[in-house]
Design goal:
0% helix, 124 residues, mainly beta, single chain, 7-stranded mixed beta sheet, 48% strand
């Protein structure tokens, strides 16, 4: 079982930046495709970004394309999400997730393990 712990959330102003981290418990982290999702109050969890096991493939939601960047360091068992040009609509709890195989990474059910989430709040 992979345990995932997110960190790096907080309060930021519009136009600012934050970097989220997701630490994985397993040395097999490098075998998993990884994704970031977010959930705002009263809304469904939505896809943000995904990255293949070796970082060779990435995928982004249209709403964050050009502003967010997903990356990973397998030697450190860590996933990152660099968030720039933040907007109030980016306010949500952000979750990282691990998938045993690369598939339709925008779907929540593709993922096998989830973290507990970290709150990101962007003030206007």
């Amino acid at each position: 079982q992979v345990q995932l712990v997110e960190s790096g959330g907080g309060l930021e102003q519009t136009g600012g930046s934050l970097r989220l981290s997701c630490a994985a418990s397993e040395r097999t982290f490098g075998r998993y495709a990884m994704g970031w999702f977010r959930q705002a109050p009263g809304k469904e969890r939505e896809f943000v970004a995904a990255i293949s096991w070796n970082g060779g493939s990435t995928l982004y939601a249209d709403s964050v394309k050009g502003r967010f960047a997903i990356s990973r360091v397998n030697a450190e068992n860590t996933l990152y999400l660099q968030m720039n040009s933040l907007k109030p609509e980016d306010t949500a709890i952000y979750y990282c997730a691990a998938a045993k195989r690369w598939g339709t990474m925008t779907l929540t059910w593709i993922y096998d393990y989830w973290g507990q989430g970290t709150q990101v709040t962007v003030s206007s």
